[in-house]
Amino acid sequence: MSDLELQQRQVLNLFERVSQPFSPKPNITFEFPNFVSPTDLSSKPGLATPASAPTDGLNIPELDLVKTIPRGRLFSNFHPGHRVAAYTLVKIFKDAPTVADMLNLAAHPDVHDAVNEHIFVYALSAALIQRKDARSLRLPPIYEIFPGKFFETKVRSEAQINVQQKKEPATQEPIIIDKNFAATNRVVENKVSYFREDLGINSHHWHWHLIFPVEATGEIINPPDRRGELFYYMHQQILARYDAERIANGLARVTSYHDWDEPIMEAYFPKLTNANGAIHWASRPAGLVLKDINIPDEGVELGIEFQINNLELWRTRILHAIHKGSVAKANGEIIYLDETTGTNTLGELIEASQWSADKLFYGDLHNFGHIAVCYIHDPDRSHSENMGVMGDSVTAMRDPIFYRWHKFIDSLFQQFKATLNPYTAQQLTLEGITVNNVEVRRNATSDNPRSNPPKNLIITGWQESIVELDRGLDFSSLRPVQARVTHLQHEDFSYRIQVTNSTKTTQEIVFRIFLAPIADEAGRPFSFREQRLLMIELDKFVVRVTPGANMVKRKSDDSSVTIPFERTFRDLEAAVPATPLAPGGVPTDLPTDRMTNFCGCGWPDHFLVPRGAPNPGMPFTLFVMATSWKEDRVVNGEDSKKLCRNAASYCGILDEKYPDKRPMGFPFDRPPDKMITTLAKFIEKSPNIKTTEIRIQFEDRIIRRFPQQ
Length: 709
What we know:
Elements: H1 3-14, E1 30-31, E2 47-48, H2 80-94, H3 99-107, H4 117-130, H5 142-145, H6 153-165, E3 175-176, H7 193-196, H8 199-211, H9 227-248, E4 273-274, E5 279-280, E6 293-295, E7 304-306, H10 308-324, E8 326-328, E9 334-336, H11 342-351, H12 359-362, H13 365-374, H14 400-417, H15 425-428, E10 433-442, E11 457-468, E12 482-490, E13 493-501, E14 507-517, H16 528-531, E15 536-545, E16 548-555, E17 562-563, H17 569-574, E18 603-604, E19 618-628, H18 629-632, H19 648-651, H20 679-683, E20 689-702
Parallel strand pairs: 1-2, 3-12, 11-20, 17-18
Antiparallel strand pairs: 4-5, 6-7, 8-9, 10-13, 11-12, 13-16, 14-15, 14-19, 19-20
Helix pairs in contact: 1-3, 2-4, 9-11, 9-14, 10-13, 11-14, 13-14
């Protein structure tokens, strides 16, 4: 077994049954680093202590801060105290001299068995992603590490019954997960529960906040390029996608939650538990109002105290900065909110990251909003209730109020965007390039064997996928337990773009593809000012276009936005990496295939397009724009070998600059001139832009996707 194969198996072993005392699997050996003191571990096979280990021991006081959140308690990366505890452990893992040292340290009982299991998973995941010498190691999916954050409580009982029956794996039926388990169809908001509670969507949100942490300092992670702007754009795109699903289901677009004296009428009962059902995420009945948070530090719950007036004060200061056009740093330095860096500065301010201009003055608006909502049912813990799902980035998107809160957050960015000059026809035009026609074509499948299926029609339906439960549920038996989940899926399709290059030289062109609904839930056509906020980025890619006529083809599963359905524990065990390591443990040849060349951050491929509506389908505008790669290009390292780049539109490229000079969401990132009221008027002087109407048709059946040719 190579060093890399061993390390991959060690990683998987460390993420199994994290709430239990650690026990190495057969043939997987951990050895304590030299800076750990000798311990009698004769009762723990697989854990060896080097004879040369010094006697000064592990610096246990470093873990005191980590242990402020006890094992078995819920963890919130929106809670400032929790974040500090988590990143204390991240730094400890990152400071280990080698990956082998880090994994051995993580296996030590004074670490693995002593710290909160959620913080352990968060910290080890963050360290593995951030360390360059660990880039070829894959993380298992978060929904298999913590199935209790994704599946209702009764699933654990069914899993335990399966284990007790001792059926052979070949005869054991997967547990069927009801895609509507949180509520009945009598609850209007449950019409879009398939979106809010999707495994891939919630995993994406977890991974995004993992690679773009709030609390990390420069000694832990370098400031990610355009991080604040990514915070804005990724969440704005979530809102656009959520609104498309709402319209498809006859619901109005989500409204901003900005009046904090207003009762929250959307109830949410998550039916989720942590640590084998011992701790429940709290429910929120309809009609509750935000209250001041005054949670004492009780030992089992890290205290936090703030007033709703604080949120109002921070909002006022941020709005003042937006309309003044500048923010002030703590030292008095003025930072102007210009069109190049203003969105990024504002994003760092609103999320209150370590790169905020003045965190003390402008506050912690985004994160404390999450905290206020997640404790709304018991704001001082008089009833010893746990937090709600809004407190955890893994679970927050399950709650309808998440979207209303982020609609408010987005409104701050939109007020800033309204201060910028509209794009001119010159800024939107690329001389010498004409996009003549755009269409989408479905791929032929066994269900649709015709070689020439209807154009501009995308079919959606359901897909069933298998996930492993036994690695995250603490059973005495090690027998496999599987679950079958049903999620949205679409038939594969391709874009066909006819483009003419009227210049005499080959041009490198960036194609930007967006999609937006044409009308609201009542069938009323959107104005362009409304529709631009509903534009969903589907893809962005570079193509060499030769002089004359060209046909550009692009597969839907090559999207710059999405990643594939994550591999299970067993998939990763069966496909351990075989990449050789250079001195220092850095991989010499990083994997480039789509299934391995990502770090878990990215919109799920099965949700690339919205659900649409039953026959004859829901009309959408497909928008394709050609811009100059020479003007848009950002110089980075060796792109072909860069890991974590598959979903660059929403996640950037790890340790590199964002691969596009344009503002994120261009050309829909700012309002148009007041005279422009339609999309047709917006593009009329830009032959490099083409739109067409397509339909997305939902069919209530199982879809089987086939590899694209």
